[in-house]
Amino acid sequence: MSRKDLTLHLGLVALLFALHFILPAYHHGIFARVMVLAVYAVGYNIAFGYTGLLSLGHAMFFAAGMYGMGLVSYHFGVPALPAWFVGVACAAALAFVVGLLALRTQDVSFMIVTLMFAQAAYLIILYFSEVTRGDDGFVIPGALRAIGPFDLSDEGTRYIVAWILFSTALLFSLWLVRHPFGRVLVALRENEERARLLGYDTGRRKLASLVISGTISGAAGAAYAGLFGYVGGSFAGVQYSIFALLWVLLGGAGTVLGPFIGTLFMFYLIDLATEVTEAYMLIAGVVLVLLTLFAPQGIVGEIRRRLWKDLP
Amino acid sequence: MDFGPYLLLAMLEGAVLAAVLALMASGLSLVFGVMRVVNVAHGEFYMLGAVMAWVVTQFLAGLGGGAAVNFIAAAVLAPLIVCAIAAAADVTILKRLDYDPERVIVATIGLLYVIQQATLMGYGPDARPVVAPFNQRIALPWFEFGENGFQMYYPWGLSTTSYKLFVIVAAVVLLFALRLFMTRSRAGLVMRATQLDRDMATAFGIPVEKVYALVFGAGAALAALAGVLIVPIQQAHYLMGGDALLLSFIVVIIGGLGSLAGTVVAAVIIGMSDGIISVFFTPTLAKIIATLAVALVLVFRPQGLFGVKTR
To answer: Is-contact A220 A100, C-beta < 8 A?
Structure first.
C-alpha cells in the first residue's frame, strides 16, 4: 500500500471526524446517515465494483442485518452491541446460502436470480407480519439503543459510531483491494476464464467475495437499525437494491472512495428533489440512464482515468 | 360456497390473469429473443398502456363517444403511443449502449423510474377506472350428484362477467395472430433472421437497427395492450407495473427465455396457480413460491422448464 493512497483515505477519515465539530445540525444528521449507508455501498462495491458480480438483490443482506439486529432486541430485549453481531451473522449466513445457489449462474441470470431471492426475502418479511410487523415496521425500544454508557439516539454519539463503522469499512476495503486476494477478485472481473487457467479456484473466491460483501452490507443494515431505531419492510424492497447500484455507479464502481462520494451526492440530490416534487425517484432514474450512457466509470472513476492513474 | 364452485371461481380468475400475463410476457420474450436484452422497464409499458387507455377514453368521453367506441379507440391508440415511446427509448438509449446486456439492464432500471415518476407527476397518485365496453354478469351453473339424483343449480357468488371472458378470448386471438405474424409474414421472417445471426442479417441488407427499434416497440406495445385489457377490471395506477413485471419475469424464465410457446404454457401455469393459491391462501404466499421457483429454475435449469438446451 503506497503512502499516497494511505494519506488520501486517512485524510477523508480525518476530514469526516473534523466535520463532526463544524457541521450545522441538519447536515450533521445527514452525514451520519450517509456514512451508515455508504458502508452498505462499500459492501456492494466489493461484489459489483471489484469482482464484477452485478447483484440486484443486495437489499436482502442489508435487511438481514437490520432484521437480525432489530428482531432480537425487539422480541428478546438483547442490548445493541450483541444484537448488532447477531445481525451481522444473519447477513453473513444469508450471503453464504444465496452465494452457493446464485453463483452457479452468470451475468444476466445472476442479476435476475439475486433479484428474485431479494424479492422472496421481502415478501417473506411481509408474510410473517406478526413477527416482523410487515410494511409498518417497528421501533426498537430506546432503553436498548445504548452501548455501555453511550446513548445511540444522541446525535453526537450517533455520528461518532457511524464514523467508526464507516472508517473501518473504508480502510478494510482499501486493505482488501491491495491484498493479493483483492487483486485476484479484480482478475475475476476482468477475465474469469484466464483467472481459472492461472489456477485460481474462481468459484470459491467469488463466494468469498459475495460473503464479505453481504456481511458488510448487513453490518450497515444492523447499524442503521441501532442508530436510527427503526426497522421496516421498505429497506428490503427492490428500491434499496437499486440504490446500492446507483450510489456505487455514480461514485465509481471499483474505486475505494467511490461508494462514499456516490452516496453523499445522491443523498443530497434526492433530498433537494423531495423539496420540489413527490416524484423524487425521477432523479434516480435520470441519473442511472445518464451514467450508463455517458459516464459508466462514475465520478471517482473519471478522476482515475484523467488525473490519477493508480487510484485504488 | 362449497369447495368445487370455489375452485372453479379461482380458476376463472386465474385464467384472466394468465391471459393478460401471456400477452405481456410474450412481449418481454420477443424482445429478449431477438435483441438478447432484458427490458426491466417492461412493467412500466404495461402501466403506460393502462394509463393511456384512461387518457384516451376520458378525452373521447368529453367529445361524447359511447363506452364501446372509446374502448376500441383506446385499444388501438394506447399501444401505438407506447410503441412510439419505446422505439424512441431504443434509438436514444439502447442503441448507444450497443445492446450490452448488463448496461441495458441498468439503463432500463433508470427508464423504469423515469416513466413511473413522470406518470406520477402527470397523472397523479390516484387509481382510476375505465368503463368496460360491456359488462354483463354471468351466473355459472354447478352440477352435483346429491340425494335427489343429478341436479344443476346456481351457487351464490359463482359468477363472472362477459368482459372477463372477452379478455381470455382476445388474448388467445392476439397470441395466435402474433404466432402467425412471426412465422408467416415477411417482417416476422426478418425478425427471426436477426435473432438467429445479427451479422449475417446485416450482410444480407437487413436494417438491423430499424428491426431492433421495431421489436422493442412491438414488445412494449404487447405489454400496453395487456394493460388496456386489464384496466376495466383493475384500475390504472402508476405503481401497477411492479407486480406485473415480476410475474412476467417469472413466466418468461419458467417458459424458457425467448421461446413463445413456452411463455404461453408458463403463463397458464403461473396465472392459474397464482389465482388458486391467492384465493385459498394469500397472494403473498403465491408470490413467494413463484419467485423462489424462478430463482431455482434459473440456477438448476437455465434453459427454462420447457426450453431446449442450446450448445
So the answer is: no
Contact A293 B287 (CB under 8 A): no
Residue numbers in A near B112 (CB within 8 A): 285
- List, as one string, the DSSP characters of A90-148: HHHHHHHHHHHHHTTS-HHHHHHHHHHHHHHHHHHHHHTHHHH-TTT-EE--GGGSEET
Chain B hits for A281, CB-CB cut-off 8 Å, are 113, 116-117
Report the alpha-carbon distance of residue A208 to residue B130 in Å, rounded: 52
B3-133+161-300 has CATH 1.10.3470 classification:
yes
**Residue ranges covered by each domain of chain B:** 3-133+161-300
CA A79/CA B191 separation, integer angstroms: 62
3-state SS, residue A151? strand
Counting as low any pLDDT under 50, the low residues of chain A are: none
pLDDT in tens, A265-303: 888 888 888 887 777 788 878 888 888 888 788 788 777
pLDDT digit string, tens, across residues B98-135? 888 878 888 898 899 899 988 988 888 888 887 777 77
Q: What is residue B101's predicted lDDT score, i.e. its pLDDT?
A: 80
Report chain A residues whose CB lies below 8 A from the CB of B117: 279-282, 285
B88 touches chain A (CB under 8 A): no
Q: Say yes or no: ipTM exceeds 0.85.
A: no
Question: pLDDT (tens digit, 9 = 90+) per residue, A143-181?
Answer: 777 777 777 777 788 888 899 999 999 989 988 888 888
Q: What does the buried/exposed string (b/e) look like for B125-156 if buried means 16 or more CB atoms within 10 Å of the residue's CB? A: eeeeebebbeeeeeeeebeeeeeeeeeeeebe
Q: Which amino acid is at B160?
A: T
pTM greater than 0.90 (yes/no): no
* pLDDT tens digits along B283-298: 788 888 888 888 888 7
A191 by DSSP, 3-state: which? coil
Angle at A115 between CA A109 and CA A120, to 5 degrees: 125
> What is d(CA A238, CA A258) in angstroms, rounded to the nearest whole number?
22
